[in-house]
Amino acid sequence: MHILIDLQSCQNGSRFRGIGRYALALTKSMLRLGREHTFTILLTDRFPGSIAYVRQELEGFIRQDSIVVCSLFEGTSSSDPNNAWRNHAAENLYSVFIAQFRPDIVFNPSIFEGFWDNTVVSVNPDLFRSIVTLHDLIPIEEPERYIPAQGDKEAYLRRLQDVKNAERIVTISAYVASEA
């Protein structure tokens, strides 16, 4: 099986939080335990200073030529309504970029990225099968705290649609599974 793992969450602000550590640790485990599978790691050129970091972290786990960098454009933060057309175009380019590798599965360990930066994520069931991690649904429980602006709410709802479009959902706890 060919598995493409989107590790943009190890490049942006999530890199320094639990989500980035989770994504990197889980990826290393998958690479170590899944030797019968073929893996491709997806990064973005929007955070150029972090590409070397991820490559170094994965050295010895995967061949460097199996780490690919998707080149997109600026101005794609999904919570800004002025970026809607650029974000939509970037999601389409992102999906086509992934499809060229013909993965059996695309795994995104953090689908809720790109609200306030140039990370682009998307689930496109017409082009590839996806598995996503759902860490929590706290923004639904406390929208005024976590998604206060209208653009934040709309961006969050688009990512929730991606979760719905995914073939499988990985949750980090039984509680999150019951919420989902």
Structure description:
With 180 residues, the chain is an alpha/beta fold. Helix content is 40%, strand content 16%. It has helices spanning 18-33, 48-57, 84-99, 138-141, 143-146, 150-165, 174-179; strands spanning 2-6, 38-44, 67-70, 105-108, 130-134, 168-171. A six-stranded parallel beta sheet has the order 3-2-1-4-5-6. 32% of the residues are buried.
Compact overview of the structure:
This protein has helices at residues 18-33, 48-57, 84-99, 138-141, 143-146, 150-165, 174-179; strands at 2-6, 38-44, 67-70, 105-108, 130-134, 168-171. By secondary structure, the protein is an alpha/beta fold.
Bin the helical content.
40-55%
Sheet with the most strands? 6 strands, parallel
The number of helical elements comes to 7
Arrangement of strands in the largest sheet: 3-2-1-4-5-6
Strand fraction equals 15-25%
Tally the beta strands: 6
Q: Separation of termini?
A: 27 Å
Secondary-structure element string:
EHEHEHEEHHHEH
Backbone CA Rg = 15 Å
- Coarse shape: globular
Secondary structure class reads alpha/beta
Indicate the mean pLDDT.
95
Uncertain stretches of 5 or more adjacent residues: none
